[in-house]
């Protein structure tokens, strides 16, 4: 697929879009309940679900920079069976998948309660903001056919 627009074109043409999405990211970071590695892994998992090449490349690189082992990145799509992920990480991935792949019945009370218990109310909101942010970035990146540097 040929890029329809570059990331720099987006920032120049309509800076309000990236700025609005960065506000969600800033909210998640300010809460301090989601460490950088988990944040990048969660963004990467959502980007895998959405088939967003640009964001997968970006967040795999960011995850490595934040200290996430390459082995974790290698098996992220199989996180349910991978023993390298903690119960907290797996719960974040479950929440990310539930919010990304909304089912007709929505999010179960059981999942909501588990996430709130593990992360706290503010952590649940921070994780939700992070997932909203990356789902939106995925849609922007896919629609504009943004291409990462290789």
UniProtKB/TrEMBL annotation:
Residues 15-98 form the Carboxymuconolactone decarboxylase-like domain. The keyword NADP does not apply. InterPro entries: AhpD-like (IPR029032), AhpD_core (IPR004675), CMD-like (IPR003779). Keywords: Oxidoreductase, Peroxidase. One of its GO terms (molecular function) is peroxiredoxin activity. This is Alkylhydroperoxidase AhpD family core domain-containing protein. It comes from Microbulbifer donghaiensis.
């Amino acid at each position: 697929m040929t890029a329809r627009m570059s990331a720099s074109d987006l920032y120049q043409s309509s800076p309000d879009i990236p700025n609005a999405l960065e506000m969600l990211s800033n909210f998640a970071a300010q809460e301090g309940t989601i460490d950088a590695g988990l944040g990048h892994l969660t963004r990467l998992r959502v980007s895998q679900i959405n088939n967003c090449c640009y964001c997968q490349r970006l967040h795999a690189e960011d995850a490595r920079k934040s200290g996430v082992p390459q082995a974790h990145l290698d098996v992220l799509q199989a996180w349910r069976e991978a023993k390298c992920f903690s119960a907290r990480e797996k719960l974040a991935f479950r929440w990310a998948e539930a919010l990304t792949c909304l089912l007709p019945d929505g999010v179960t009370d059981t999942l909501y309660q588990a996430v709130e218990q593990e992360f706290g109310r503010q952590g649940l909101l921070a994780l939700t903001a992070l997932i909203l942010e990356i789902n939106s970035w995925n849609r922007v990146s896919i629609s504009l056919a943004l291409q990462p540097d290789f």
